[in-house]
Amino acid sequence: MKRRIALLLAAVLGITLVAPVAASATPGYCGIAWGSGVKSTWPTVSGALTNIRSGRQECYDRLVFDFRGENDGYHVRYVDQVTHDGSGEPVPLRGGAFLQVAVHSPAYDPETGTPTYPVGDPAELVDVTGYSTFRQVAWAGSFEGTTTVGLGVRARLPFRVFTLPGRVVVDVAHFW
Hints:
Layout: H1 2-13, E1 39-41, E2 46-56, E3 60-71, E4 74-79, E5 97-103, E6 134-143, E7 146-153, E8 159-164, E9 167-173
Antiparallel strand pairs: 1-4, 2-3, 3-9, 4-5, 5-7, 6-7, 8-9
């Protein structure tokens, strides 16, 4: 009823009504509206990194960071070149675009310095062979309480980052 009155009033006054535009992007592929801008949140807790794993989903590829304890801080963004923490040396990555994924937790025990995440092959942390979007996951270091990983992806695509108990999750869409 209110809509009819508003339309009638607009017609009489010669006003064009425009529906409000949502602040978020229009959903695209699979309803995804994540965008490709920086995703970041300051930590309130930071447990030690214990594992990095990945998975393939219907609409996106997923990278998961597991922690001993909780972690809710991260900084993820597209960069021209991912660099090693501390040294600033480039991290070679395959792909058409590169995400620098920093979690605000060490990969070592802060009291003893003992590694909590054993880095096997730093150039291939996770096997992403056959993934739609991911091309490579490489180690960039753990320095001053922050652990960084380079994620090579097929192209600059929308991504999201969120936390679950004991995890930080990065999803990158297969398409726009």
